[in-house]
């Protein structure tokens, strides 16, 4: 019988011990051959192809670890009531104002990076949800910078209120510490209102009519005929707005 050298015995012992101590492969990281599993750890985007398995052996279900990931919607989309909508263009804003009729319409100008907007938003959502008759529209400042400047928005969060034929009835800035300003405006303009005239649209964008696809003749008449006319579409673009 061949006897092992003392150093070889030591190596065998080390290998044996390391084999015994090696943890079993957790079920979390087992996946079928045609799937890709996600490894939990600092990098969640690193995908690894699982090792091959003998044919005929049943593959366990894939379990994807999402530990450490934030759950839920971003703050500007979280807990939005049914009467709250996102606006992505001036055309959408004009259409919504026309469709609202005599309902009170509140437009908020916000930015995703604005801490004041984020702090105020849960309170706004609660009050909007408690007043289902009003329509609340959100305008992302970063996606509509030129339009926001034309509408006189120079501080965030900023609010416009519109009501039927009266057009814009209020504009103001509001933070979490001045929430009463929003409450007072909501109380002043949320009473029932009935007008016999159509909504005037936006004075800052007279060339934009509501639902131009339904009124092609009106849209053609309102379209600018020259560069000079186009420059006159935004008369308030360079007018400073004083928030009182």
UniProtKB/TrEMBL annotation:
InterPro entries membership: Thioredoxin-like_sf, Thioredoxin_domain
SUPFAM superfamilies documented for this protein: Thioredoxin-like
Domain Thioredoxin, first and last residues per copy: 53-191
Signal peptide residue numbers: none
Pfam families the UniProt entry points to: Thioredoxin
Sequence similarity: Belongs to the thioredoxin family.
Protein name as it appears in the record: Thioredoxin domain-containing protein
Organism whose genome encodes this protein: Volvox africanus
């Amino acid at each position: 019988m061949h006897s092992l050298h003392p150093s070889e015995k030591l190596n065998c012992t080390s290998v044996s011990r390391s084999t015994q101590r090696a943890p079993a492969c957790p079920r979390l990281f087992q996946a079928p051959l045609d799937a890709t599993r996600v490894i939990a750890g600092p990098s969640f985007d690193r995908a690894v192809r699982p090792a091959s398995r003998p044919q005929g052996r049943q593959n366990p279900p894939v379990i994807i670890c999402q530990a450490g990931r934030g759950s839920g919607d971003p703050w500007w989309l979280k807990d939005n009531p049914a009467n709250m909508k996102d606006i992505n263009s001036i055309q959408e804003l004009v259409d919504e104002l026309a469709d609202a009729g005599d309902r009170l319409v509140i437009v908020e100008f916000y930015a995703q990076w604005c801490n004041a907007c984020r702090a105020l938003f849960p309170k706004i959502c609660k009050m909007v949800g408690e007043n289902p008759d009003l329509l609340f529209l959100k305008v992302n400042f970063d996606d509509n910078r030129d339009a926001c400047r034309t509408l006189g928005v120079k501080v965030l969060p900023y609010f416009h209120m519109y009501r039927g034929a009266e057009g814009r009835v209020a504009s103001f800035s509001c933070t979490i510490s001045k929430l009463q300003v929003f409450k007072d405006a909501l109380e002043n303009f949320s009473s029932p209102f009935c007008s016999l005239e159509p909504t005037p649209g936006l004075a800052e964008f007279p060339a934009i009519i509501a639902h131009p696809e339904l009124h092609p003749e009106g849209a053609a008449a309102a379209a600018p005929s020259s560069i000079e006319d186009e420059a006159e579409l935004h008369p308030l673009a360079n007018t400073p707005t004083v928030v009182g």
